[in-house]
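On clarity, I found the account of how folds are encoded harder to follow than it need be. Since the whole study asks how a given chain folds, the encoding of that fold should be made plain. For the editor and my fellow referees, an illustration may be useful. An entry of this sort, consisting of the sequence and the corresponding backbone structure tokens, reads as follows:

:::
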Amino acid sequence: MITLSNLIGRIPGGVAQGIIWGIMALGIYITFRVLKESDLTVDGSFATGGAVAVMLITSGMNPIIALLIAFAVGVILGICTGLIHTVLKIPAILSGILVQFGLYSINLHIMGMVANVSCSPVKNKVLITMRNVPQAILIGMIFATALIIIMYWYFGTEQGCAIRATGNNEHMARAQGVNVNNMKVIGFALGNGLVALSGGLMAQYQGFADVSMGRGAIVIGLAAIIIGEVLSEMIFPKGCSFYTRLIFVIVGGIVYYLIMIVVLWLRVDSNDLKLATAIIVMLSLAIPNLRKGLK
């Protein structure tokens, strides 16, 4: 039934999932905005992070350690994409597609050749679950805050600045003695590490890992980034700091998922959610240009 109370009841769950998608968007932000590269590995590495975390948790491992291992596996996947791009000279977008394509089979092997593996919070010790949404929001915010602080610190270091310089002007960075190929590999590695980490969180939250759970993740991540940028430009028209932009990536993830909650509340067919996502991304991309045109 389409009632206001029904919508309000769905909001906390939307916030919890939005934070997790926002963490994934932080990983995409590294490649898409910092490196200025399009990395489609994330559709596969998100599912890999979920698969690794669930298989380790169901085998009795501590969920925090399982998430750290999922992050490490994501880093390895990012390194693979980065090396294909830099060593084999294959365009970044195609390198990501190749790794993503191969990850479908790898993810099936990780999950014992089944497409879906359950991770019930009743039978397993999990860090975050939809059965306790307030706790899920708190833990998600702790992860998001810690990651933003670490990213802000890291991209202020010499290596972090070299990665940012590579994305801003690759030729100038090379002229300054920066090994741009190494910086790209590191950027891809960190980005996919965060994506896999968010995949591990999402698998715990929803109670299962699925081989196709990362399908469309790149679009959702881009939507979160763009929505966050639009909101930050509205609030800070004269520009904002790198730290603030990272915060708005998380905010963008929350806003995106709240929009999806409203779409579902309006009884839109679930088969049309991909279309709704495409429309949201299109509008998010168009708003800055429309605002400039109006000015």
